[in-house]
Amino acid sequence: MNYINQKFLDDAEIKSFDSEHRKRLNYNIGKYDEQVARGKEQFANLELAKRRAANIKHKTINNLDKYLVEFENNFSKQGGKVIWAPNEKEAQREILHIIKKAKAQVIVKQKTMVSEELELNELFEKNKREVFETDLGEFIVQLAGEKPYHILTPAMHKSKEDVADLFHQKFNMAPDSKPEQIAHFVREKLRNEFIRADVGITGGNFLIADVGAVALTENEGNGLLSMAFPKIHIVIVGIEKLIPSLEDLDLFLPLLAQHGTGQKITVYNNLVFGPRTEFEPDGPEEMYVVLIDNRRTELLRFKEQRRALSCIRCGACLNGCPIYRSVGGYTYNATYSGPIGSVISPHYLGMKEYNHLSFACSLCGKCTEVCPVKIPLHELLLHNRHEAVTKKYVSYSWRVIVSIWKIVMLHRWIIDRPKARLKNKMIKQFGTKMWGSRRILPKIAPKSFKEKWKERIP
């Protein structure tokens, strides 16, 4: 068992039995569940909308090379610049080159999971640049020196009391500050940073191939400010975020909003076609789209698992997952947590080291049920497990145990012949450690169901 696997098991045990953590996470997710249930009412036929979205993303992923070239051509015609980044190091190098060339010192960032994937904050701080997360949740976790806990809600693990205490420590605000007071304080503080900023960095919810535009959807307006004030706007986005046509947005925007936060539509929905033109009063003078591969094309090689690239990052699968709701986001030790993270992280970070995430699943199928683009997540986890076993990435002892169990399950007499007393002795001898110290080992009854059935019906 490697270190990363063991750390997952250790952290999972701590978090699973932390009653305060579970209470907090279930409360916060419960609020989303209520909103999402109401948001579904806007669809006359939600299942049809999901099927349409799934078909569009499936078509796009299977023709990704064509749509990427189409997007680049159309975006470039409008004055934008596309940078292809095959891996994390290349992306970091290109982004840092833009910042150094512009002699930029202050950077504002909209919430984007890709920036966490590239560890941009650490990169900027290492190069002595000021960087400010402008999403309220991201600002909170940056202030706390932490990473996002959830794809959509970075500070989901914190209570309002935690946040008030953090702002008391960092800014000497009143220790009993209300959420509204904290939000007002952050808004006032960030306004100055937007004005000072030399570079704004955002993600992109969708790249639209036929018009060469970036679609950015948000609730706080910070994304719009991050690209409107600075002279340079850098979009960092995974190559899988493409959709073919502008007309597809009327399907994807409501699906994303409803499954993410339960809204009919997100508050701010922006389409960015490139840098400011001579006829526009504001906006960036330069705009770059950095297309991140970072092993996504390797995931494309897999016939089944490639479907995970259809993800629109709504976070619904995390909210529905009993494992995530128990162990929390940090336990995964990866940028992407929950069911979608358990599918893609082993491919992005290495199947040998991270295959254990694909086993951190009860296979209840809730993630598949709630996905707005119908990714069969629990099935893809089984495909990951098969790959891990085939390549012998799982431990030798576990492979032996499963092989023995397979033989036993295929030969009923092996189960029937030993007496209950012997079975219980064997279970106690070999199963205690695997069953865990917090659970009581079950006892085999003196007579099996089969034996009792035979007695009842000779």
What labels would you give this structure?
Fumarate Reductase Iron-sulfur Protein, Chain B, domain 2, 458 residues, 4-stranded mixed sheet, Rossmann fold, globular, alpha/beta
Quick overview of this protein structure:
The chain has 23 helices and 10 strands. The protein has 458 residues and is an alpha/beta fold.
Helix and strand topology:
Layout: H1 3-16, H2 19-39, H3 46-62, H4 64-77, E1 81-85, H5 88-101, E2 106-109, H6 113-118, H7 120-126, E3 130-133, H8 136-143, H9 160-171, H10 179-196, E4 199-202, E5 206-208, E6 213-218, H11 222-228, E7 232-238, E8 242-243, H12 249-261, E9 268-272, E10 286-292, H13 296-300, H14 316-320, H15 324-327, H16 338-349, H17 351-354, H18 366-370, H19 377-390, H20 396-410, H21 412-416, H22 420-435, H23 449-456
Parallel strand pairs: 1-10, 2-3, 2-4, 4-7, 5-8, 7-10
Antiparallel strand pairs: 5-6, 6-9
Helix pairs in contact: 2-12, 16-19
Descriptive report:
By secondary structure, this protein is an alpha/beta fold. The protein folds into three domains: 3-9 and 310-390, Alpha-helical ferredoxin (Fumarate Reductase Iron-sulfur Protein, Chain B, domain 2, Orthogonal Bundle), CATH 1.10.1060; 45-294, NagB/RpiA/CoA transferase-like (Rossmann fold); 396-456, no CATH class. The chain has 23 helices and ten strands. The protein has helices at 3-16, 19-39, 46-62, 64-77, 88-101, 113-118, 120-126, 136-143, 160-171, 179-196, 222-228, 249-261, 296-300, 316-320, 324-327, 338-349, 351-354, 366-370, 377-390, 396-410, 412-416, 420-435, 449-456, and strands spanning 81-85, 106-109, 130-133, 199-202, 206-208, 213-218, 232-238, 242-243, 268-272, 286-292. The strands form two sheets. The chain has a six-stranded parallel beta sheet with strand order 1-10-7-4-2-3, with helices on both faces. A four-stranded mixed beta sheet has the order 8-5-6-9. The model has no long low-confidence stretch (mean pLDDT 93).
